[in-house]
Write a structure and sequence with these properties.
single chain, 314 residues, alpha/beta, 7-stranded mixed beta sheet, two-stranded antiparallel ribbon, 12 helices
């Protein structure tokens, strides 16, 4: 990857200033008004980005063939509006102190993480559901020394701002796409018996294992399974939900213990187990997931690979 990709430019700075102006405006609004506006404005962009929205509807229809076109459309709109709500919530949270933030976000099953922190450490298995960024804030707000493995965005000014907000209550970020040997950085963190959050439910551009995901072939990174097996740490699935009053609940599932030895087959089987949580969560509440991302962008490539390597089908 060329270093020029993340260099600062005047265009990047103009984009950053525009974003900052929007951020200031959203923070000045009352919480409920900001959330309502965020949902409506981002929801409206589906008419502008109509090709992407059409693809989202097609993906949902293929994942849920039993649903009517009206139900598919409703799920797609809900997912689109949720993106706007995430943006508004995140900006509102950035103006709060820890005590106020806790009124809007709580962790259920926190004792499972407390038991692991400083003893075994562990990996947070979380996906792009509801408001995944809220859990990162909540982990720090409730006293966990956590890091996240994230992808850097192309605009360096925007990336720096996102990273600042993401870690405003404390925290560390490792970049999977712009950092020297991120795997080793994550291993060092886990060996300190700390918590590491990873999202791997989106398309990978290179380096993958191929799995069936909601009935279609998709590329997945084995990073979570590799780290868990190599470091021998438990994996804690975490699902974020939102009730009708807007309260966010981060539910920590029971830890998943990785295989005791590293083999390619163990890595594949453990990765498949982790993918199963994503499928379960999507089927429970499909509108909560980030369908706007082109999850099956490399489907044809994956199908061609598995045709040549049928032994790798799981």
């Amino acid at each position: 990857m060329g270093e020029t990709r993340f260099q600062k430019t005047p265009a990047h700075f103009v984009q950053y200033l525009a974003l900052k102006a929007v951020c200031v405006f959203v923070r000045l609004l009352p919480y409920r008004a900001a959330v309502f506006l965020g949902r409506q404005l981002v929801g409206f962009t589906r008419f502008v980005l109509h090709k992407r929205f059409k693809r989202v509807c097609e993906d949902i229809a293929r994942a849920f063939p039993d649903k009517s076109p009206q139900q598919v459309h409703q799920i797609a709109v809900g997912s689109w509006c949720n993106m706007g709500q995430i943006f508004a919530e995140f900006l509102q949270f950035s103006a709060m102190d820890v005590a106020e933030f806790k009124n809007y976000c709580r962790i259920e099953g926190m004792e499972k993480l407390t038991k692991a922190q400083g003893v075994s450490g562990g990996i947070i298995h979380i996906g792009h559901f509801t408001n995944w960024e809220a859990f990162g804030l909540a982990a720090s707000a409730y006293g966990f020394d956590k890091a996240v493995l994230a992808q850097r965005v192309d605009n360096p000014y925007v990336d720096e701002e996102i990273n600042r907000l993401r870690n405003m209550f404390s925290g560390t970020t490792f970049y999977s796409n712009h950092q020297d040997k991120p795997f080793l950085a994550c291993m060092r963190w886990l060996r300190k018996k700390k918590m590491l959050g990873i999202l791997f439910d989106q398309n990978t551009i290179s380096g993958e294992m191929w799995f069936s995901f909601l009935g279609r072939t998709a590329a997945f990174s084995p990073i979570t399974a590799l780290l868990a097996i190599k470091a021998q740490v438990p994996v804690f699935p975490v699902y974020v939900s939102r009730d009708n009053k807007g309260l966010l609940t981060c539910t920590v599932y029971d830890p998943i213990i990785p295989p005791s030895t590293y083999t390619l087959e163990n890595t594949r089987q453990f990765t498949k187990t982790l993918i199963g949580y994503y499928e379960q969560w999507i089927r429970q509440n499909p509108a909560s997931w980030l369908w706007a991302h082109n999850r099956w962008k490399r489907e044809a490539e994956g199908n061609a690979y598995l045709e040549k390597h049928p032994e790798e089908r799981l």
